[in-house]
Amino acid sequence: MAKTTALVLRAPRAVLAGAVLLLVLAGLYGATAAQHLLSGGYSDPTSASARADEILDDTFGRGGMQVVVKLDGPPGMNMSTDPQAQQVGNSIVAELAAKKYVQQPILSVWGNPELAPALVSEDSSSALVIATLDGGEEDAPAYASEIEEQLTGDRDGISVRVGGQGLVFNQVNEQTTRDLAIAEGIAIPISFLVLIVVFGGLVAAALPVVIGIVAIVGTFALLRVIAELTDVSIFALNLTTALGLALAIDYTLLLVTRYREEVTRGSDRRAAIVTTMATAGRTVAFSAVTVALALVALAIFPMYFLRSFAYAGVGVVVVAAAAALILTPALLMVLGPRVDALDVRRPVRRLFGRAAPTPRPIEQTRWYRMVQFVLRHALPVALVVTAILLVLGAPFLGIRFGFPDDRVLPPSASAHVIAQEVRDDFAQDLSSTVTIVASGVGDPHSLSGYAGELSQVSGVDSVTTPTGTFVDGQAVGPGSTGNQRGDVSIVSVASSAEPMREDGRDQLDALRAVESPDGVEVLFTGLAATNADTVDSIYAHLPWVLGSIAVATFVLLFLFTGSVVLPLKALVLNILSLSATFGAMVWFFQDGHAAGLGTTATGYLVATMPVLMFCIAFGLSMDYEVFLLGRIREEWLASQRTRADSDHAVAVGLARTGRVVTAAALLMSIVFAGIAASEVSFMRMFGVGLTLAVLMDATIIRMLLVPAFMRLAGRANWWAPGPLRQLHDRIGLSEGPGPDAPVARRPSTQEHSAEHSEEEQITPRIG
């Protein structure tokens, strides 16, 4: 850090000029990043349902994204028998069939009368034309939008509208782009105003915004590079914007606050910058590594939706930290005293006739007195706050996961409106169909017994094979001859069970329990199967993700503090805080209390979002943990390391970082609140959840539970076994005391022996 700072201070203007050039190039390249990103990636590409979809596409040219064309006739018209309706419907089928990206077959009641319960509404006033689109998640949404533009309107008195999965993805994509612009429009101006209040001047307040813009633009360019190599979700842009601005504010706020503190102590500005980067700068670097490791764990998941946040998260952390550690000292050096120019507090004080406040000893500040109160009442504070957090987290025990559908869109979105009408007005919903891909079928008639057993499962309306249709175990009609290619057959299970609810999962389990014919491999797909496979995949990978985060966090905090107690404390308190946050998410967005905060409650949470929120919130909480522990440890190392010194170090560390952490949390919550304005329900949950997590962590956890638990642990906070102490002596990384901090007195032999008689040596010695 010292060498890097020396290089920057040697030619700060050249550093800034180079940064401007890189920013322009990155901006030009990354401006079109959104056009290269995708709106899917929720399912596991290695799952059985994904393999079934691949066989359907390769063998039958089916299995693409669904597009639904809904025809609504005037009152009294029977859409299945009226000649005019048939003419309009057949013309739409012909137009769809003429498009190269539309897969066959195209389903309509006029060509598939046996599917009337699913294609004609119960009052016969509406009919559906259903097709699937080639092109996957990359191209199918655009194709669906093209079909909507061409077909929507009135034809001979019949209203034609378009919906379906393909259009849902397209509208989610478009809505996310609009929401991103709104979030930026909310977060950046409000954050700047708050920064003016926090820093007291326009120039100083502009520093975090500059660093944030650099982080966002640089990561946009990085995401476009990654998108050329692999699939990346468009939702990664939301994380890039929010996290880039939030971390830039965090890091710059910490650096500028320490810089001002060193200048106030009497250091010249160059020396103040050097000391700042050797102390707070080292904390920023360490914090960035901690946050990045929490986010990189998302790459363990096979879904590219989650993997994209690993790419974006690590990228924005690296760029934000590099920008803060390189550009901040350069800006401080070039600006000099002008960093405090345009101080808005001076005219306000003159207006009210108040003098500038004089610096007070840290022991006389409100932060110090508040921490002392917590330390004096450590046990009751710990018990009461823990009990409150457990109560808030109780709804988390009832969490349920599911796959996102049209209901993630606002109720006014056309794809949501049409899907809801289908759910309400049609006897069957084709989205509930379970498709079974059977490989190794020599004779299609050998599937008859298997299909008969499937048709007897509760909630199954019918089962169709290439040779017959079965209801309640009996053959009732012909099959679908187009469902056989070589030794691969398609078995379609028409179901009345809601695929995203418990009855859909129970039915799927019952269908999978039916034994297939000898030598035949069956793979299940459809919404129910994809949902189940996605949830199962998340549960299967979750222990590895959580374990890697816990181990990485423990090791890093040990290297930072030399203690094994403090990392364990951090893990426990963070999990306690996040449990309360997730309890609120279940209460609002799953159970629909407070009207789901303006979203459509479905009885489950989108499976990928809680995992994503956990990794981000955990990383950010570690961000504040490192800020706090860095300053506490600095005071501890500069003391005589008695029990009283431990309490004093906690109080001073919290008093010196309390304003920084609180201001950073407030600013970060503003950034995430911008995402909470999203019209896509799971992004709103993402914004609300992270806003609550950040505020709760910076207040209840950092200001109450941390000092209470550190008071109860006393000198044991700094304990580590002998071998680990020796390891930390060799490779430990910690923020050293500033030049004006008191030098720790080396204990005498008698004191050293007495200390060992009380307990093992608590922490590595200085010098």
Question: What structural keywords apply?
Answer:
767 residues; alpha+beta; seven-stranded antiparallel β-sheet; five-stranded antiparallel β-sheet; 24 helices; elongated; disordered C terminus
What can you tell me about this protein's structure?
The protein has 24 helices and 14 strands. By secondary structure, it is of the alpha+beta class. Helix 7 packs across helix 21 and helix 18 runs parallel beside helix 20.
Q: Give the termini distance in whole angstroms.
A: 20 Å
Mean pLDDT: 84
Pick out the low-confidence regions: 734-767
What percentage of amino acids are in beta strands? 5-15%
The major pleated sheet works out as:
7 strands, antiparallel
Derived structural class? alpha+beta
Q: How many H/I helices? A: 24
How are the SSEs placed, and which strands pair?
Blueprint: H1 2-10, H2 12-30, H3 48-60, E1 65-72, H4 83-97, E2 102-107, H5 116-119, E3 126-133, H6 136-151, E4 153-155, E5 158-163, H7 165-199, H8 202-227, H9 236-264, H10 269-296, H11 304-335, H12 345-352, H13 366-376, H14 378-393, E6 401-402, H15 414-425, E7 434-439, H16 448-454, E8 460-464, E9 469-471, E10 474-477, E11 484-485, E12 488-495, H17 502-513, E13 521-525, H18 527-561, H19 565-590, E14 605-606, H20 608-637, H21 643-676, H22 681-713, H23 722-731, H24 749-758
